[in-house]
């Protein structure tokens, strides 16, 4: 199987690059300089060269706060870029995995969101990802929509930020009124690879198990790293963020449960694995 991965420089793209050596097929991992998904001619040129059996579309505009001031750019990348990829998948009969987000929900529920709950995004980024879902579904019949949450892996992320700040400060302030599920990019990549081998097309939530607040997440990061930095819980209103965030965006991997079982481990176990594998210069400096 030949698979194109867009957004190769991102955390998920790097997780797929780490899987390339053990994959029996061919993973063609493309960064934005090699494939601008908003350029339809370039998209078709790449597809003509590779003729992929499947595409994992991870390229996206992900700057949540910046999107409030630049909605056209967010929609250009997340909707027009997705349209271009979906149209090429239709032409070449390729399976498509479209990466979406927990931010398609408004966070007003008090139970984990399933794939059958109605989206209602609060911000521009969430709306652009939801419109990306809609346009992919209208074009490409061989489609997996994969929603995930609070992703971390190889690259800039919450875990590395907390570790860095913890070595520079005596105490940290972290939001304690937003609840979700941290998801390890390596686990997500493996989950997508398992899904793409099937023809069980549809919408899936893929995240690690359990849930926590950002404050709980920070506490566990510091505990696993053996750092004594004090963390002070604060409300979302403490930070003047441009975009509204859902207060509760826990995803339940319900379609996996219905299809034979949820194989994702709990977020604490995944985080411990991630921190244990971090280079010493990052995790213990």
UniProtKB/TrEMBL annotation:
Keywords associated with the record: NADP, Oxidoreductase
Pfam name, any one: RmlD_sub_bind
InterPro entries found in the cross-reference section: dTDP_dehydrorham_reduct (IPR005913), NAD(P)-bd_dom_sf (IPR036291), RmlD-like-bd (IPR029903)
Keyword Chaperone listed: no
Highest taxon listed in the record's lineage: Bacteria
Role, per record: Catalyzes the reduction of dTDP-6-deoxy-L-lyxo-4-hexulose to yield dTDP-L-rhamnose.
Annotated PANTHER family: DTDP-4-DEHYDRORHAMNOSE REDUCTASE (PTHR10491), METHIONINE ADENOSYLTRANSFERASE 2 SUBUNIT BETA (PTHR10491:SF4)
Family: Belongs to the dTDP-4-dehydrorhamnose reductase family.
Name of the protein described by the UniProt record: dTDP-4-dehydrorhamnose reductase
């Amino acid at each position: 199987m030949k698979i194109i991965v867009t957004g190769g420089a991102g955390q998920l793209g790097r997780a797929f690059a780490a899987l390339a050596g053990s994959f029996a097929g061919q993973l063609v991992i493309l960064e934005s300089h090699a494939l601008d998904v908003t350029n339809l001619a370039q998209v078709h040129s790449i597809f003509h060269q590779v003729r992929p059996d499947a595409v994992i579309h991870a390229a996206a505009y992900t700057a949540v706060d910046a999107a409030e001031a630049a909605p056209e750019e967010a929609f250009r990348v997340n909707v027009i870029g997705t349209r271009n990829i979906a149209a090429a998948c239709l032409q070449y009969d390729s399976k498509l995995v479209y990466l979406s987000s927990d931010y398609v929900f408004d966070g007003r529920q008090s139970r984990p969101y399933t794939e059958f709950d109605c989206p209602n995004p609060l911000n521009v980024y969430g709306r652009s990802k939801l419109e990306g879902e809609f346009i992919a579904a209208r074009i490409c019949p061989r489609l997996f929509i994969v929603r995930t949450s609070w992703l971390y892996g190889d690259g800039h992320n919450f875990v590395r930020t907390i570790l860095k700040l913890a070595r520079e400060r005596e105490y940290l302030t972290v939001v304690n009124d937003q609840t979700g599920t941290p998801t390890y990019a390596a686990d997500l990549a493996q989950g997508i690879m398992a899904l793409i081998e099937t023809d069980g097309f549809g919408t899936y939530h893929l995240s690690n198990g359990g849930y926590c607040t950002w404050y709980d997440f920070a506490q566990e990061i510091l505990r696993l790293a053996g750092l004594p930095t004090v963390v002070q819980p604060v409300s979302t209103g403490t930070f003047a963020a441009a975009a509204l965030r859902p207060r509760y965006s826990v995803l339940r991997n319900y379609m996996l449960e219905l299809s034979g079982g949820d194989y994702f481990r709990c977020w604490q176990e995944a985080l411990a694995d991630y921190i244990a594998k971090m280079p010493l210069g990052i995790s213990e400096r």
